[in-house]
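Ticket #4471: structure export looks truncated?
Reporter: QA, pipeline team
Priority: medium

Steps to reproduce: submit the single chain below to the structure queue and open the exported record.
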Amino acid sequence: MRPTSRRRLALKRPPPAVVFSMQVLFSAALLGWLLSREEFRASLAGVLRSADPAWLAAGLTLAGVVHLLCLMRWRIFLRMVGVTVGWGESAGLFFAGLFSGLFLPGGAGGDLVKIGLLTARRQDAGRSTLSVVMDRLAGSVTMILVGATLLATQYRWLTADPLVAKLVQSIGLYLLVLAVLISASVALSSERLVSRLPASWPGRAKVLELSGAYFQCARQWPQTLLALGVSLVMLLTFFLTYYCAARACGLDPDVIRFLAFMPIVDILAGLPVSLGGLGVREAVFVLLLGTLAGVPSATAVAVSLAGYTLSAVWGLPGAFLWLIRKP
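Actual output as written to the record:
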């Protein structure tokens, strides 16, 4: 088969507008299904109206800390690749990306905005992209470590129900596959085998992109360890934001057990099938809280929506920064 024929047979990625529309429809369908019953909507409204302001304030504060730690982690990688931007400028870029990421298709929409705005400020596009790749990689490694640890510590409780057990095992398998893929790409990069792979090798371009990140992480390992430490605190604080939402909605769950199923929620909500995880996150909370703790569905949805809002509201400063951005 000729190369031109091979290219014609290749699957084309759908346009961003189509992806965005499909995500909106999927989120709307899931939320519509959850909110279809009048008594459910009344119960949900009652839970939200009676939410404890003190716990909501605590969750909002923690959500702000989460984004500050995310900014700190990204700044570490910016310095590692030689991109020099001040705190004010990097904060503006970060929150602009955070806001736009709420609406752009795909989980990396905000990252693309940050790269574009850095490039518009005459920063090197390759270095800017590398900083975001390293930031994403640190997040993946942290999720593997934290997620596997939390699932293992509460495995017996999480797998008491057959349906939840299958979900937990699937998430565990996902984390294992992710760890293997990262380890394999590290091995390929360290041995300089990527350049020898055929051009048609699946994932070759991605490994080539990651090889620069691995090189910088290995060469500046103290900064890499610092970034991973920041990432670890950030992820646990993010999970605690939802714990505060649960307390605000009248629940008093065991902290460790609540944290144990948050990796499941976060991973499934991160799938690029919905808008910001809306709908998916609520359905997973209903399943996990209802099955494992006997929490009413309306309360579970209230916890999910409150936790999401506490985090998303910090993207509002990015709206202002996005509007006043330089052309």
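Status: closed, not a bug. The export was complete when the record was re-opened. Leaving a note from the reviewer for reference: Confidence is low (pLDDT under 50) at residues 1-11.
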